[in-house]
Design brief:
The complex is a heterodimer of chains A (329) and B (711). Chain A is an alpha+beta fold and 329 residues long. Chain A is 27% helix and 21% strand. Chain B is built from 18 helices and 28 strands.
Chain lengths: 329, 711
């Protein structure tokens, strides 16, 4: 790890002023559960770390009549323990609980979860975000058991590691971003994550000198849930996940969103599958049909075709969990 | 006179009881000092530079930039590699020593290698890549017997390379003082550690002082001082400063040893009555750059009338294998038990009944029969068992599986000195090591039992090569070796004390025993003298007792023995829609002769189960077939079971008549052998198809379920 400068400003504008407009020159430190590892692995070698720890404005959860706003520096544990969040957004709570390690959720932050880097083992061993050697990706002919099953026609084959991303997209959350000079913009969660095309890009719409400051989730009264296919009970990555949110009167589904996780370089909304649910009653059969529709268009690689089965199951189980059916595991 | 034979059951006060380990408090509070915890003023941190090539000729190693980095004290290069080949990614090439760990790591990145890469063989699953030389063995009238078998069941089975993954990585802290080398390694062989190190470093063996009081696991990978022991010592010698060199986690996983793989096709010939007739196995696998011996198949059912075994080695450009807890046995057990259980399924027979039907084909039919019954009771076999394939509704399928194993475990050569001092203190010295299993506690118990004293009264000194030599801890040989040596030494010391005390009490030497903190007459217990008073009679000089465990003699005396059996059963749930296997329960029934400390013995079995569950469900070395790099050389994707993953573990130790009188037998390997077999069989029993490979991860389970038309 090369020597670096450590800044711990108390105000957001100070933090923004300390950020470079070039990726990798400076890095934003939130909980540190990923960034420090990245630095040890030479994934990034910043000359300055800007810690957001002391910026009070970025912490905490506020609730009004219409929405719940979550400061980016709110810890994952705080999020999952919040009474209103628990009552309204089980999709988020399950996603946090799925991380499986108290240390991680106590230290890791909501913003950090959305901005953490992929776990691709080619990326993490200095082959770059797109895992290329001589202009060719190492992934398709390599060991890709944990890689993407969607979007493989593009350059990136890693999977988004975000636990909260799929649930935030399903819930229609908005991401509040502040940039140089205090300029603010709001991006729907579904547009926050993106697939990098080159090594100069990263996995979100954030510019190097922008900070994700808060996330707002509307109170739309949606049924929602997350289901993660996980093997170990402790700290581990899921193989595939699904987050769903929809309006339901007991007879008809409407405004459904279905988003897969850990199957593509971004959380992966499957709107065709979601639209299949519109107007239908949620049963095991309709949930399974939605799961089946969710994997249409998948482009699995040589070793990860099994994830199709996992993804379709995750969708089915998330839908059933959202309406409180405990019939499935 | 005290006799060295173990006391009879009614006389044992400590032996066989559940006793807390002596070093529990210092380990749980962090007081214990491991190799990494040895810290000295002026300490240098050494780091290893390894080959990034799976196969290459090294033309030159350029250390100039690394050497020039401020804070780097010195560098080391393996000159013998220049012009020669490196054979795997991770092979040690060079090292640096710097004033901080960060600087040392940075210096590594400045080292450049001029090398000519060559073609490498990484994959170990394709038998066409095997060496031409095969090992072949045939017993019985194979062709005719197999042909005559009423049913033939053929399956493909595969168990991958895994590593030891010691939580404490390999390495040591070393320091020169004058012409003496002081070294604190993490080792399984304190007394033997300096062998060869002396020549490599140029320090006479007598001047090499090895100290390993506690260590964080070896499992067969820490017998040697290794190259890093030489490098650390040389750097310490050159700089005159203490040098710490511990492997990084990726190096630990790549170079510090692994368990060979075994893949193959096994055909079992069986009659409809369930009697095994014949077995044919064609097996291949890799020990990396190290040697390879096909695992013992058939395992346990060694008396199957006719067998044919073909073994092939695939030499790969990967780190070399080392003894992994029960070398060959977990593989042989998995391949055999899975294949015979598939045969039972093929004839529609209950697995337990099938195993029982064939026990006469084992070396210990009577013992296994008892153990199967006990394990079946522990896990509730009668209420849970079903033929292959859980037919209940829903995606969660439950199943039970069985594994049977065996091991030797004869106590190793070991020496012990025990001195009894006029103030009543008892000092025990033995150059053995406690790998975390309770060795220190066991020798203390044996000595305390012999002297009739409480455990705390014994000053137990181990972990130094200044003490009488004791063999390496491997192959479940330690507990027998150290227990016998301690018993012999303490009996010897006690008898020397008795020689002095008996005349004073006016009793015959044969009429004195040490019990309850005193020496007393066996025939007239009113004649006694408290321990301290007895020792005072020694006057100015202490007595020294010596014990040497000589295998044949100790066996003759009933102090030690070898040959144990164990049965394990696993109860799992398979989610057939996700391929996720969950361990509900495991039951382990094990004999190991006379148990010295029941608590640490049970702990050993719990540990074996957990390690076994881990390789059954999670562990495998994943390599990139082009770069030769281990892709999961970390503890993120090299998965180990956590507490929530292991389910409920039930351990039953066979003790009492029939077991105790055999003497002490080792227990390190046996409990880790069966879990792969038992869990794989349980999964097959649950979901209706054999998942042919370990570990039982969702990708492999789903693939088998899809191939079987189940999902």
């Amino acid at each position: 790890m090369k020597p670096y400068e450590y800044a711990r400003p108390k105000e957001l504008d100070e933090a923004l002023a300390l950020l470079s407009d070039t990726w990798g020159e400076t890095e934003i430190l939130a909980g540190g559960t990923d960034l420090i590892t990245c630095m040890k692995q030479h994934v990034t070698e910043p000359s300055r770390l800007v810690s957001l720890r002391d910026i009070e404005a970025l912490r905490g959860i506020t609730v009004d009549d219409e929405s719940v706003s979550i400061g980016a520096m709110t810890t994952l544990a705080e999020l999952a323990a919040h009474a209103e969040v628990r009552a309204l957004y089980p999709a988020l709570v399950t996603a946090v609980e799925g991380i499986g390690a108290a240390q991680m959720v106590n230290t890791g932050t909501v913003g950090g979860d959305c901005c953490q880097r992929p776990r691709c083992w080619y990326f993490r061993t200095e082959n770059g975000l797109l895992a290329q050697a001589n202009g060719e990706s190492l992934v398709p002919d390599g060991d890709n058991r944990y890689h993407a099953i969607f979007g493989n026609e593009a350059a990136a084959h890693f999977v988004s590691p975000s636990s909260l991303g799929p649930a935030l997209i399903a819930l229609g959350a908005e991401m509040f971003i502040t940039g140089p000079g205090g300029a603010t913009r709001t991006v729907p969660a579904g547009e926050f994550f993106k697939r990098p095309e080159t090594e100069d890009e990263r996995e979100t719409v954030l510019a190097p000198n922008e900070i994700l400051v808060a996330i707002r989730v509307l109170k739309l009264g949606l049924k929602n849930a997350t289901y993660e296919v996980r093997h170990r009970a402790g700290l581990d990555w899921p193989y595939a996940t699904a987050s769903v949110a929809f309006a339901y009167d007991g007879e008809k589904v409407s405004a459904a969103r279905v988003v897969l996780g850990h199957v593509a370089p971004t959380p992966w909304p499957v709107s065709d599958a979601a639209s299949k649910l519109e107007g239908s009653t949620l049963t095991e059969k309709s949930a399974a049909a939605c799961g089946e529709a969710a994997i249409a268009g998948a482009t699995p690689l040589s070793r990860n075709g099994y994830k199709l089965q996992l993804a379709r199951t995750a969708v089915k189980r998330a839908l059933l969990a959202a309406v409180g059916s405990t019939k499935e595991a | 006179m005290a006799k060295p034979q173990w006391p009879s059951a009614e006389k044992r006060r400590l032996i066989g009881k559940r006793i807390d380990r002596l070093d529990g408090p210092i380990k749980s509070t962090g007081v214990a000092k491991y190799a990494y915890d040895q810290h000295f003023d002026g300490l240098l941190y050494a780091k290893i530079f390894y080959s990034p090539y799976p196969s290459a000729t090294i033309n030159a190693v350029n250390m100039e930039a690394a050497k020039a980095l401020p804070g780097v004290e010195t560098v080391w290069v393996d000159e013998s590699l220049i012009g020669k080949e490196v054979r795997y990614v991770g092979q040690v090439v060079a090292a640096v020593a710097a004033v901080s760990e960060e600087i040392a790591n940075e210096a590594l990145r400045l080292i450049t290698l001029d090398a000519t890469p060559q073609e490498a063989q990484i994959d170990d699953t394709d038998p066409s890549k095997a060496e031409e030389k095969k090992s072949e063995r045939e017993e019985g009238d194979f062709e005719a017997t197999m042909a005559a078998a009423e049913v033939k069941s053929t399956g493909r089975y595969s168990i991958p390379v895994i590593t030891h993954c010691c939580l404490e990585s390999h390495g040591q802290t070393a320091k020169m003082e004058g012409d003496h080398l002081y070294i604190w390694p993490s080792t399984q062989a304190v007394s033997l550690y300096a062998n060869g190190l002396d020549e490599a470093v140029g320090v006479p063996q007598a001047n090499i002082h090895v100290d390993c009081q506690v260590m964080g696991g070896g499992f067969g990978s820490k017998f040697s001082h290794d190259k890093w022991g030489v490098i650390g010592s040389l750097l310490a010698k050159e700089t005159g400063k203490p040098v710490k060199l511990m492997l990084e986690r990726d190096q630990e996983l790549m170079v510090a040893g692994n368990r060979p793989s075994a893949h193959g096709e096994v055909t079992v010939g069986v009659n409809k009555s369930g009697k095994l007739q014949a077995m044919e196995a064609t097996l291949w696998g890799t020990g990396g750059s190290g040697g390879y011996r096909p695992p013992p198949v058939p395992y346990v059912f060694t008396k199957i009338p006719a067998t044919r075994l073909t073994g092939m080695r695939i030499k790969t450009n990967r780190g070399g294998q080392r003894a992994w807890r029960g070398p060959g046995h977990p593989q042989g057990c998995f391949l055999t038990m899975a294949a015979v259980e598939d045969a039972a399924a093929a004839i529609g027979m209950d697995a337990l009944e099938f195993f029982k039907t064939n026990l006469e084909l084992t070396e210990r039919a009577e013992l296994y029969a008892k153990q199967l019954d006990i394990a079946a009771d522990l896990i509730g076999y009668k209420t849970k068992a079903h033929l292959r394939g859980d037919k209940t509704d829903g995606p969660l399928k439950r199943g039970i599986g069985i594994g049977i194993h065996t091991w030797g475990g004869l106590g190793h050569p070991s020496n012990c000195d025990i001195s009894v001092h006029p103030d009543g203190s008892v000092v025990l010295k033995m150059g053995t090591q406690d790998l975390g299993v309770g060795t220190r506690t066991v020798v203390g118990i044996v000595a305390a039992e012999t002297f009739g004293l409480p455990l705390e009264a014994i000053d137990v000194n181990i972990g130094s090569n200044a003490y009488p030599s004791s063999n390496a801890s491997g192959g479940s040989t330690t507990v027998g070796g150290i227990s016998a040596a301690t018993r012999l030494a303490s009996t010897d010391a006690l008898n020397k004390l008795i020689d002095v005390v008996a005349p004073r009490l006016d009793v015959d030497v044969d009429d004195l025993e040490a019990v309850d903190g005193k020496l007393q007459s066996i025939s007239d217990p009113t004649k006694s003298i408290p321990w301290k008073d007895a020792c005072k009679l020694l006057g100015a000089k202490s007595v020294l007792g010596r014990g040497e465990n000589i295998r044949g003699e100790s066996q003759e005396m009933g102090l030690i023995d070898q040959g144990v059996g164990g049965v394990q059963m696993a109860d799992v749930t398979v989610d057939i829609e996700t391929g996720v296997v969950t361990l509900n329960e495991m039951a382990a029934v094990q004999d190991c002769g006379l148990i010295i400390d029941l608590k640490t013995a049970e702990s050993q079995v719990y540990g074996g189960l957990i390690m076994g569950i881990t390789y059954a469900l999670y562990e495998e070395c994943i390599y990139d077939n082009r770069s030769g790099r281990m892709l999961n050389a970390d503890m993120e994707f090299y998965r180990l079971a956590g507490l929530k993953d292991v389910g409920q573990l039930k351990v039953h130790m066979m003790t009492g008549p029939g077991f105790d009188e055999r003497g002490v037998i080792g227990l390190g390997e046996p409990p880790v052998i069966s879990p792969g077999a038992a869990i794989s069989n349980a999964v097959a029993n649950a979901c209706g198809v054999r998942v042919p490979e370990l570990p039982l991860t969702p990708d492999k389970v789903v693939a088998a379920l899809q191939a079987g038309g189940i999902v």
